[in-house]
Amino acid sequence: MSPRSPREISVLVPPGLAPLYPDDPSRIGPYLVLGRLGQGGTGTVYAAVDVSSPNVGERLVAVKTLTSPELEDPSTYPALTRRLRSLAGIDSARVVTPLVHDTDANPPWLAMPYTAGERLSHYVTKRGGLGSGKLIALAVGLAEGLSVLHARSVSHGALRPSEVMLGPDGPHIMDCAVAPSASRMRGHGATWLSPERYRGGAPSPAADVFAWGAVVAFAGTGRLPFGTGEADEIAERAADGSFDLADLAPGLRPMVGRALDPDPDRRPSLREVVGAVIAVWQAEHNADAQQPGREEISRILEREWHAIEPPARIPEVVRLEGHMAGKRPTRLLFAAGTAVLALALIGTGVWGVGRILPSPADDEPSAEAAADAAQEAQEEEEEETTIVVRLDPSEQEDPEEGPYVYTPVDRDDTPIRDQGAPTHEYWASEWDEAGEPGEAEIDPDAEVLCAKFCTAPDDVHIDDDFRGTLEITAEEFVDYLSWGPVMILEVTFDEESMEGDGPREIVQITEVFTD
Ligand SMILES: Nc1ncnc2c1ncn2[C@@H]1O[C@H](COP(=O)(O)OP(=O)(O)OP(=O)(O)O)[C@@H](O)[C@H]1O
């Protein structure tokens, strides 16, 4: 390999990093923006390069532009600046804190260390509750993280499973910059909201303790401690103290139960929580009783935290001249440190990474390929009973009664995965029309699986194919149609209904989404 020009630097990027949207910035402060890590209720998170970092492994940072509703009024910026300064002073691996921030920028932004791992919400949804040792490590790690925040007078205000990143070295509390208002938190699910927060109260240490209890209960059992249902029903159970911890590890039950006390004054302090969880671990392992503190927490994490390995990051070379010219940074993918495999496209907003140009020989179809193509064409001609469609509520004449207008759609590339949820509108725009619109009725007994739209984000259940797995009734689905956003759905028609000219009957619906 020729010696690298001084205008190129290497950076390790996560596999499958999502491309930038056309309007995304190419630079934020001193950072070169490479791709999207995701978008949430408080802003958009980008993978970016710190070109000044001498260490290739640390060059990747996560930069978040803050666009949350809580920051619409600029008079909130001084408080944001104070909060970010307090967070910047924190020295704990359990909390993801800002490296650099700029609250004078529009929008304000902060850069954080890139934190690899899997969100607790995904982990538990996929694999069920954590085993006893890992659960104790999670419980004590989160309690330590929260107490470090509280020591700097910062209440998290939004602790929930999707804000806990499980990394190779332990859990990390994310998204500490902006504490969402109670009304916005209700949209994330009532389970993690203490009764006083649900009623509109401000974030507080006691509310964080409640959220800790709910998160640990969920992590230990794989179920929501106050059950499922409408937000108000869950909140009512929380206010009554009717939680179900029957499947939680017995040692943790008393402390989690106290944390979920509806009365904030009766909840334990984090000091008590940490002490109690450490004592449970020491008792279960006949470990010598060391003083509860950071060292003992590290010992628990070392012993109990294992088997969470994020996918290996991929070395890439970033050419600096692209960004110097105000264009998107050029990214080149290296394989085994020797050959450049992909051409990055400069300045077009199009991602070039991972694209390999076909060789001339690839243009000549083999006999086998031609036969495959013919069979595919024949199959295409036969009418499919299961297709992917776009259902846009704004196109419906009668969203309550139907029949519903659907448009068949198609998507060439693989859905973006693990990059946070895009908006429904963006997701829908990724699909091309692939046929004439048709009309369909929805069978009242249709099976409906949804990914995201009909539920709070923390109740999202997504299967390995990134479809929905949360079951709702056809009636609930139709009700949703009257006010919901555009959706991409895999639908199955009743075969007989495909024979006549009238509307087809949909007997199965699965939302196709990503998270
Ligand atoms: N420091 C980081 N390192 C790596 N990925 C990050 C980092 N911070 C955030 N992300 C990722 O960026 C995405 C968006 O995160 P963000 O916290 O803004 O939104 P969210 O948690 O999905 O939603 P909400 O803000 O509504 O809670 C998530 O996939 C998250 O895992």
What does this structure look like?
With 515 residues, this protein is an alpha+beta fold. It has 3 domains: 1-115 and 316-348, Phosphorylase Kinase, domain 1; 117-310, Transferase(Phosphotransferase) domain 1 (Transferase(Phosphotransferase), domain 1, Orthogonal Bundle), CATH 1.10.510; 382-511, no CATH class. 28% of the residues lie in helices and 21% in strands. It is built from 14 helices and 20 strands. It has helices spanning 77-88, 120-127, 132-151, 182-186, 195-198, 205-221, 231-240, 253-259, 270-284, 294-304, 320-324, 367-381, 424-429, 474-481, and strands at residues 8-13, 27-28, 31-40, 43-49, 60-66, 100-102, 109-113, 118-119, 164-167, 170-173, 314-319, 330-335, 339-340, 386-391, 404-410, 432-433, 438-450, 470-472, 487-493, 504-511. The strands form 4 sheets. It has a 6-stranded antiparallel beta sheet with strand order 2-3-4-5-7-6, covered by helices on one side. The protein has a 5-stranded mixed β-barrel with strand order 14-15-17-20-19. Strand 12 (330-335) and strand 13 form a beta hairpin. It is globular. Residues 1-6, 322-328, 332-366 and 453-460 have low confidence and may be disordered. Residues 37-43, 45, 62, 64, 96, 112, 114-115, 119, 162-163, 174-175, 420 line the site of adenosine-5'-triphosphate (ATP). Residues 367-376 have a biased composition (Low complexity). Keywords: ATP-binding, Kinase, Membrane, Nucleotide-binding, Serine/threonine-protein kinase, Transferase, Transmembrane, Transmembrane helix. Residues 361-419 are annotated as: Disordered.
